[in-house]
């Protein structure tokens, strides 16, 4: 794949992540956004490093648009998002994307908020689990529905050449 094609798709997925970040679905004490789906697509189609960068950046955009309710904690959350999406990409390359997406759902729901159990309160941790589960599952369903047709289209058009 040419450098220009890759750069174009990185910018495209980053833009889609920003659009997804602007789509807020209120849920409990939080809202969920669709900023992870483009990062997950990027990690499957372009590679884990690109997906991780887009995922962390998409989280910053989502946090900014949401008013930064956790302030500086969003640095930690963005780092976690980058690592989780990177590892999801590695799993997708070694196995199937469905295994990677299940890993993403589990890590985004249970593992990523774990530091806040100790930093904030256990009540915050338990309260945030359901919105995180819904958000990560919704983002994963979107990716599961479109990655295969999109990958087939990219193969037919010579994208990876």
Question: Can you characterise this structure?
Answer:
The chain has 161 residues and is mainly alpha-helical. 78% of the residues lie in helices and 5% in strands. It is built from seven helices and two strands, in the order αββαααααα. It has helices spanning 3-22, 36-45, 48-65, 73-94, 97-111, 114-119, 122-156; strands at residues 24-27, 30-33. It has a two-stranded antiparallel sheet with strand order 1-2. The radius of gyration is 15 Å and the shape is globular. The model has no long low-confidence stretch (mean pLDDT 93).
Features:
161 residues, Arp2/3 complex 21 kDa subunit ARPC3, two-stranded antiparallel sheet, globular, mainly alpha, 2 strands, 7 helices
């Amino acid at each position: 794949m040419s450098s220009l094609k890759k750069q174009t798709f990185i910018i495209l997925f980053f833009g889609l992540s920003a659009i997804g970040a602007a789509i807020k679905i209120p849920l409990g004490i939080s809202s969920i956004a669709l900023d992870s789906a483009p990062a997950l697509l990027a990690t499957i189609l372009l590679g884990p490093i690109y997906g991780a960068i887009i995922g962390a950046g998409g989280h910053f955009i989502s946090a900014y648009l949401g008013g930064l309710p956790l302030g500086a904690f969003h640095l930690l959350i963005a780092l976690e998002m980058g690592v989780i999406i990177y590892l999801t990409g590695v799993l997708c390359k070694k196995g199937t994307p469905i295994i990677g997406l299940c890993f993403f759902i589990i890590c985004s729901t249970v593992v990523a908020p774990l530091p806040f159990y100790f930093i904030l309160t256990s009540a915050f941790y338990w309260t945030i689990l359901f919105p995180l589960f819904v958000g990560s599952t919704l983002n994963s369903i979107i990716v599961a529905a479109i990655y295969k047709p999109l990958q087939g289209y990219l193969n037919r058009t010579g994208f990876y050449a």
